[in-house]
Amino acid sequence: MKKYAFLFSAFFFTGIIVSVQADTIPDLALIPTGSDCNTYEVSMSNPPTGALEHLKITVSISPNGSNLNATLGSALEADDYDLEVTSINSITISRLSTSAATNFQLPSMPDTSLTLFAFEFFGQLGDTVTAEIDSLVMITLATEDSIGIDNPYTISSSSASCIFNEGAVLSGTITSLQNCMGAINHSIANATVVISSTNMPDFTPVYTQTDAAGDFSGIVPGGGDYLVSPGFNLSEPDCGLDDLDIALVSGYNLGVAPFTSPWSVVSADFNLSNSISLLDQIGMRRAILFDVYPEGFQSWRIVNAGVLNGGSLNENALSLITETATVADVPLSGVSNINFIAVKTGDVKVSCNQCITTNSSANSVPLAGLKSKIRGDLSEGGIIELRLSPEEAYKQLWLIGLEFILSPEHLEILEIRGEGGFRLQEEGYAVNAQTGRFHGIWLPLEQQFLELGKGDQLTVRAKVKRSFSTIAEVFSLLSGANIYPDGNKRSWSISPQQHSKIVVFPNPFGAQFTISGTVEVGQLRVFNAAGQLIHQQQLQPLVEHQIIARNWQPGVYFYRVETPSATTSGKLIRK
User: Would 27-164 and 367-496 be classified into the same CATH topology?
Assistant: First the structure.
């Protein structure tokens, strides 16, 4: 029998007396590591140097603990130790030999303690979580007779606790290259920041806002993995957009003016497609003129500063940007410097000038009236074409946009096409089938004027949904017409000298009739055959009015429409 330096009581194993003599006894302890109260290691002083048959040590965590993780001590990594973290809040290191050939020895650590494993645990805010070495420790010596002998041990430090009363603080700053509405000294105030957990399903997201300096912070339980998602929008998303921004995007697309800042590339991606093209120029123009924005548009993009800050970026790398920050395994000491850069979408020149406002003007300007023609079948189901063209040729015209509405109850717009200077660019126009609204964008190369010839025209092809008696009835449905010859909004209408005919239909009428055709505000009066006034109301220009007459007696009536420029009268028959 081999001799071991341990003093142990005599045991009788199948008639064999085994006695050992010991000078030292192993000591186990929980040793805190780091500055947080939730990180420890299980240490063994005076580890046995002889052959071992079995080793098993367990640390139990109180039920309110969570997110346990453990790592094997570096001195044990080369051997076959099993380190298990269970669902019942325990961490166990174990090693078991199956024969004398597989007996093992703990590494000899003469000058220091042997670290068996390190671990950490977490808890909810307000909780006190405890860790304790279980008393059922097994350190079994191997013998020549294949009979294991449990070795005595001590536990000098068996338990520890941690109070999660403050939690971990996640903090950072959102700054902006632009200094404009919502930004104070280039810091974004009142941005919303949402901190959510990616590994704790029951975690309630933390909502916080940036202060005047752009700083934010949120308290979360330590040990979790979190996603930080900022957001910021302006009430006027076109703030800061102007023609110079479009010019810079055009220069980039033409390859003559590359961007010097990665944030300019982010700003120029107006439609959030992860590329920069003519479509971004068109989208910016539509936003400036018509307040129409791409689907999913974000007024501000809050980009993770760690991705691009100080770096370079071209459109091929736009997909690399991220508008969130992931923070894993948060220590109790928290994580700071979770910083973001706020980029005003479309404000490529990084100035964020005062928001552009649209202006209405009654002054005579080029294209305030367009010559118009209609041809085709006015009956229900027929196809008509409305052609708009200038009455004279225009040179050096800064035409940017045009819009109008055709009543969707009467006409279904099938096609819009332009010729000459009215030629529409790809994706440069929009038709809303529900409202009958048409938006057209003309985007010349920057610093170049458009020209319109007398033969140039914009053609609207539409299907008739209700029959018309005269062409004038069609013109009366045209409303909401504006042009943008210089970036400002100007009212546009068909010449009243050509299309001022008042139309009443049907006539004779039954329970109601319709009156339309006025291009100015007018006053309608209806008289019976005795000359008595039986109905009056105001007529709005280019609007179709339904007059309810179900209580009128059958017979002859007379109407009069008075406008500032003309008076029109006629006869009505109630059948």
Answer: yes
Q: How many CB atoms lie within 10 A of CB 258?
A: 10
Q: Under 8 Å CB-to-CB from 91, ≥6 apart: which residues?
A: 58, 59, 61, 68, 70, 83, 84, 85, 117, 119
Q: Alpha-carbon distance 234 to 182, whole Å? A: 8
pLDDT at 8 over 50: no
Is CATH 2.60.40.680 what the domain over 367-496 is classified as, yes or no?
A: yes
Class of domain 503-574 (CATH, top level): mainly beta
Q: Which two tokens stand for residue 470?
A: 């005269």
pLDDT of residue 354: 41
3-state helix, strand, coil in the chain (%, to 5): 10, 40, 50
CATH no. of 27-164 = 2.60.40.680
Q: Where are the domains of the chain?
A: 27-164, 367-496, 503-574
Q: Is the CA virtual torsion 407, 408, 410, 411 positive or negative? A: positive
Res. 203: pLDDT tops 90? no
Residue labelled with tokens 């309810």: 548
First-to-final CA distance of the chain: 130
pLDDT in tens, 34-58: 877 889 999 999 888 788 889 999 9
Q: What is the pLDDT of residue 193?
A: 94
List Cβ neighbours of 352 (8 Å cut-off, separation of 6 or more). 178, 179, 180, 181, 183, 239, 240, 344
